[in-house]
Amino acid sequence: MANKETLQRVGTIGDIHGEAKNLKIALEFLSQANVDQIMSVGDIIDGKTPQDVIECLDLLQTYKVLTVSGNHERWIIKGQNMLLPDATHWQELNEKSQKFIKKLPATREFDTERGRLLLCHGLGSNDMVGVWPGDYGVALEYNLDLLRLTMEGLYKFVINGHTHARMVRAFDSVTIINAGTLVDKQSPCFLVADFTVGYVQFYDIRQDEVIEARKVAI
């Protein structure tokens, strides 16, 4: 992968939640997909066994994936919501994994061929909000974090996750690109965004194979 100041093509992984097998499939594909960078929107932990979570954290580091923190990483650091089903506990992680989680930023910013890009988990620094494909009317009018992003006009694109719902939607000057999730029971997928040609290509993971899915213009 080339290390370019202005990104042309990026691969993005959605919410992972310990799905080590699907993460490895996605990363192996993206490492051969001629992308400038591979990115992850966070929520790496909580969902599978501690061993699966540790493998996911190791894979992200091995493939040098540019990753942000999700609400689940924030929770484990603060010791919150530990009674949730399939919660990962801090003491179940090794020192390498703990250090990686602690260093994750809430957001990352990049320049692309078509404008500034914000990588985050929810919307901006708020990791508990998002936009769903079916959000209209009041749901959008009262989404203050979305309104802030559109009014500030700092970013042309926002790549995020949190909702587990793949999506490409334009709001005024901002296009939200949701990478979906790798959770096996929730239509696991990932994407490649090409800012030179102007499209987002989603890929499904079915029976351990990568299948080309929906392609959306941006």
What does this structure look like?
By secondary structure, the chain is of the alpha/beta class. It has a single domain (7-217), classed as Metallo-dependent phosphatases (Purple Acid Phosphatase, chain A, domain 2). Helices cover 25% and strands 28% of the residues. It contains 6 helices and 12 strands. The protein has helices at 20-30, 50-62, 71-78, 95-103, 138-141, 144-152; strands at 6-7, 9-13, 37-40, 66-67, 107-112, 115-120, 157-160, 167-171, 174-178, 189-194, 199-206, 209-217. The chain has a 6-stranded mixed sheet with strand order 1-5-6-7-9-8, with no helix packed on it. Strands 4-3-2-10-11-12 form a 6-stranded mixed sheet, covered by helices on one side. The model has no long low-confidence stretch (mean pLDDT 96).
Task: Give a short overview.
The protein contains six helices and twelve strands. It is α/β, with parallel strands linked by helices and 218 residues long.
Summarize the helices and strands and which ones pair or pack.
Elements: E1 6-7, E2 9-13, H1 20-30, E3 37-40, H2 50-62, E4 66-67, H3 71-78, H4 95-103, E5 107-112, E6 115-120, H5 138-141, H6 144-152, E7 157-160, E8 167-171, E9 174-178, E10 189-194, E11 199-206, E12 209-217
Parallel strand pairs: 1-5, 2-3, 3-4, 6-7, 7-9
Antiparallel strand pairs: 2-10, 5-6, 8-9, 10-11, 11-12
Helix pairs in contact: 1-2, 2-4
